[in-house]
């Protein structure tokens, strides 16, 4: 399933494929840093099953005073 | 200029002015001379504006003669160089904008100017608030006045360095993942990231629309309260700006903190912490308990997922910079360029999942904030690192204690709480409920009344 947990860390080959898909040129001596940054940022996503996150969508609309402050149960 | 004046407080300087012991013009001249002497080694300023400063100071003197009693009148400040300033170049710390002169002020700049502050100049920022300048960059990075071999933190690097060196009384900062609190922590000064939407971002260069906050840095909590009062409030020019009325944050100081419930989330924030940091933090908790606060442990499991904030940051930053990154990448600093390009590698699904984790974090924190009034953590796991460490091009993004509160948007204060065994400042982080800046400021002020860490200064 597309959003099932994906425990394997991001590989360097995946990073190269993503760079190619984005149409960017990244210097060879910076790819390890890019890999580390993206791997670390993705690690939490790969640890959790996104289906278990409570339905509070749309999550991309953010308001510090939003309904989450008063929401005890969903 | 005496250290007492260089390191004075806003309240004390205002009293000096009103009792005719000092004048804004003489203080401004003295600070300009101090900057001229110290800044060649510290690089806190990217642009000095002496003519503007003296004009502001003369106007403040006139106003004082008329009996004007506004608290920020004649107070010397400077702005992080991602805040647009009319007629004064605004570089963003980048070669891309090295000679750009905006034709309008950022809302916060205008508000501080209208409040009577004296603008001394523009303070260096990490490039576009995200990338420490590497050797060979058009603009040299600021250095930490406590030890110039160490970074002052970023991205409001010049703001932290200028305050620690006694060059200004207040400075603007911005905070997307800790850029107000980090420099405050590493430079031994105080900074507050207000609630998301509390202070305007209009006219401030964007790093990440949903994570960016603006706020002040100063040397004390009381000074931050004065400066926040002068900048907070609704701004229709910022789509995220809250319509809630701003408060008088100074008036809220001084009340008792007895019975205030302080929660300590023991997960995430203590990972990779130095022993010095933990010891200083536990000492600070004992001070808070001594003031009558009810300190207890709390659990927010979602904090362990906080690193996913980077996906939001780099994806949004790439969206902002994409055109320039694709057409003139050579004008971006080394390493920053590739960090920003990482945003193009985040899939749509990953961005959405990161925002869902953010929502989960907000929900869990909201539950915990029903049982406590403030969360307390170490601001940073370690004191300021050296340039040798931070200018390693292979360094990705070190673990940080500050992004969780960019995700939640809570008001979060950083106050000095000790010195490391190497003589570098350590800091306490206090986060309150949304729009309860008064609570964290009151607690931070009480802490500073009981301790003297905020009065320690580097030998510059």
What does this protein structure show overall?
The complex is a heterodimer of chains A (about 70) and B (about 450). Chain A is mainly alpha-helical and about 70 residues long. Chain A has two helices and no strands. Chain B is of the alpha/beta class and about 450 residues long. Helices cover about 35% and strands about 15% of the residues of chain B. An eleven-stranded mixed β-sheet of chain B has the order 1-3-2-4-6-5-10-11-9-7-8, with helices on both faces. In chain B, helix 5 links the parallel strand 2 and strand 3. In chain B, helix 6 packs parallel to helix 7 and helix 8 runs antiparallel to helix 15. Chain B is globular, with a radius of gyration of 20 Å. Chains A and B meet through helix 1 and helix 2 of A and helix 10, helix 11 and helix 12 of B.
Q: Could you tell me the radius of gyration of chain B in angstroms?
A: 20 Å
Helices of chain A, by number, come to 2
Q: What is the CA-CA span between the terminal residues of chain B?
A: 13 Å
| Number of helical stretches of at least 4 residues of chain B | 15
Main beta sheet of chain A? none
Percent strand of chain B equals: 5-15%
Count interface residues per chain for the largest interface: A-B, 43 and 53 residues
Model regions low in confidence, pLDDT < 50 over at least 5 residues of chain B: none
Q: How is the largest sheet of chain B built, in terms of strand order? A: 1-3-2-4-6-5-10-11-9-7-8
* Low-pLDDT segments of chain A: 58-62, 67-74
Structural class of chain A: mainly alpha
Coarse morphology of chain B: globular
Query: What is the arithmetic mean of pLDDT of chain B?
Result: 97
Oligomeric state as shown: heterodimer
User: What's the pLDDT, averaged over the residues of chain A?
Assistant: 76
| Major sheet details of chain B | 11 strands, mixed
Order of helices and strands of chain B: HHHEHEHEHEHEEHEHEHHHEHHEEH
